Amino acid sequence: MSSSLENxxxxxxxxxxxxGAGIAKYLAQQGACLGISYANSKAAAEELLKNLDGEGHFLxxxxxxxxxxxxxxxxxxxKHFNNKIDGLVNNAGITKDQILLRMKAAEFDDxxxxxxxxxxxxxxxxxxxMMKARGGSIVHITSVxxxxxxxxxxxxxxxxxxxxxFSKSLAKEMASRGVRSNCIAPGYIQTEMTExxxxxxxxxxxxxxxxxxxxxxxxxxxxxxxxxxxxxxxxTGQSIAVNGGLYM
Length: 248
Ligand code: NAP
What we know:
single chain, alpha/beta, Rossmann fold, 7-stranded parallel beta sheet, binds NADP nicotinamide-adenine-dinucleotide phosphate
């Protein structure tokens, strides 16, 4: 049993910024060979690639809401990694916040299409190589919002709760093949996604976090590392909350 990620090929979606970029930096430090991507932030992804520890990483464009883009990305990634994919981190996600009374169907659909359907499309692509190797770990980045609900985020909350249920089903289908599926549910993490909150909103949030601080991308990366490593080999279908005590 080992916590090392040496010789492991791991794909992280949405690694160009925020939590995904934090996960990429941390996993590369642990010896993983990474498949990273960008949807729009090409320059940021190229900069990240330049600064990652280790060699042999793969970078290409990926829009997880678009089936053709997912097909093309995973075809190239599989080729790059010789069909050996040890881990997938379904991290890419979006918000389109609006109170329910005003939420447009398109705002609901877009968030589900990216966060939930995107995780389905990407997970499906790694199952064959993982089944063949009789091993693999899929980690979905969900959210405390999927567990608690939140005013103005019905679409986002539904996408994340749906991903948790999806992860459990995947875990049950794949356990006998050695493939694990788990979620990390972050609380409020300091990234561009939370940068848009005003001071008042931030103060309100912090007053409900027993640890009285926002999380860092490294807080999430460490938990992802655990779920990808052999240290968690008997853990599947679970969700680990990394939220400073915000929701218990
Ligand atoms: P972020 O800073 O807004 O970054 C989002 C990332 O997702 C970017 O790399 C972006 O790529 C990528 N992305 C967006 N749409 C995509 C698409 N259609 N296809 C592929 N990639 C796409 O967000 P974050 O805060 O790091 O959040 C990362 C994950 O953590 C999300 O799933 C989010 O729901 C979850 N989360 C975040 C928090 C938080 O407090 N920040 C809390 C709980 C959960 P480009 O820049 O290239 O477009």
